[in-house]
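Students often ask why inverse folding is considered easier than folding. One informal answer: many sequences map to the same fold, so there is more than one right answer. In these notes we will look at a single instance of the problem. The structure comes first.
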């Protein structure tokens, strides 16, 4: 089977070539993103392997079908970038990697929280300039603070386990509550209660049509003044303009983003020689209490190993058994 990779980085090649020693597929790598314009590059492939910022809309899927592509293998958990209805109509089957190392993203979430909380991003730069003053670096203890998790699937739960170790009170909202979260001492509450009571709010739910801009001006206004907001989930969950206004007024005290609404134009690329064209991203980067990372929550040795293994075994299951446990059903959309 030939698998055409899109948006492939050197590390994708390293981990997939290693995993492929057990599978023997023909892997072809392109750093080009997948869209309707680039779908023709999949000619001769039975499957394409796509990532978070590829655009698998109806036009793209139709063009893939024209090339004879039968399967789309997402090498990520989220699937908001795929028009699942169009895929089903075209008979293209879509698989993903639902549960690779949730601890990778959970631990990155904690790295963001602890960096902002103790200002280590600023301390690092200060000390390198031989400035050992502490003014402006005052933090707060995580112990005893209330953390609201929106989404308690694999990553939300892994985050809750770590936060419990810090002595935090755990609240969560999830339409499908988990007994595991309650066993950790956490309580399910409404979104309004999360906003009203949480010192830190962390997003761990998928992006869907219904929850686009879940964190908008009204939601932010309902939060505690000075709240810390963390998004390692999907950029579209947060209305960036409202977040900027709230940072200016102090309503948001700290903002950590591993994902950004318009990230597909910027993330995973070196643009250091170019002028930043996105005014909102530029503005966000001027705040001392904003920490942005370029969608690296998943980026650990353990996670990449699992992503490669699971992606290739998903395609093997589809081709050999005609079904795969990690196939995305249309009703999930
Ligand atoms: P999961 O499927 O295990 O859990 C998602 C949870 O969110 C489920 O319990 C579901 O019931 C809940 N949920 C759905 N809609 C909701 C809503 N409107 N409000 C509250 N909860 C809702 O997914 P997992 O593995 O925990 O991943 C969560 C998200 O993290 C993914 O959808 C993806 O967007 C993001 N992610 C980010 C990565 C990164 O590198 N920053 C890497 C992997 C995933």
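Output (designed amino acids):
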């Amino acid at each position: 089977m030939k698998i055409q990779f899109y948006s492939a980085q050197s590390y994708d090649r390293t981990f997939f070539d290693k995993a492929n020693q057990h599978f023997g597929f023909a892997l072809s790598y392109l750093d080009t993103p997948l869209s309707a314009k680039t779908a023709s590059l999949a000619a001769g492939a039975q499957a394409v392997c796509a990532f978070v910022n590829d655009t698998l809309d109806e036009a793209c899927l139709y063009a893939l079908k024209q090339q004879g592509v039968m399967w789309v293998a997402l090498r990520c958990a989220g699937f908001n970038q795929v028009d699942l209805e169009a895929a089903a109509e075209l008979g293209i089957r879509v698989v993903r990697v639902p549960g690779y190392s949730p601890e990778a993203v959970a631990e990155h979430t904690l790295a963001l929280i602890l960096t902002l909380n103790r200002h280590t991003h600023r301390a690092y730069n200060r000390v390198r300039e031989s400035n050992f003053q502490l003014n402006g670096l005052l933090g707060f203890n995580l112990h005893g603070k209330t953390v609201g998790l929106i989404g308690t699937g694999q990553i939300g739960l892994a985050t809750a386990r770590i936060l419990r170790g810090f002595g935090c009170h755990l609240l969560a909202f999830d339409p499908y509550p988990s007994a595991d979260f309650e066993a950790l001492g956490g309580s399910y509450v409404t979104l309004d209660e999360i906003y009203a009571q949480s010192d830190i709010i962390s997003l761990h739910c998928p992006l869907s049509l219904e929850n686009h801009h879940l964190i908008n001006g009204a939601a932010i206004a309902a939060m505690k003044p000075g709240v810390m907001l963390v998004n390692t989930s999907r950029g579209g969950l947060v209305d960036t303009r409202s977040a900027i206004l709230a940072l200016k007024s102090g309503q948001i005290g700290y903002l950590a983003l591993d994902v950004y609404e318009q990230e597909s134009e910027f993330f995973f690329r070196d643009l250091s020689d170019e002028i930043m064209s996105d005014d909102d991203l530029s503005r966000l980067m001027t705040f001392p209490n904003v920490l942005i990372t370029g969608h690296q929550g998943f980026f650990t040795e353990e996670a990449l190993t699992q992503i490669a293994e699971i992606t290739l075994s998903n395609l093997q299951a589809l081709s050999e058994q005609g079904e795969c446990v990690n196939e995305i059903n249309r009703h999930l959309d």
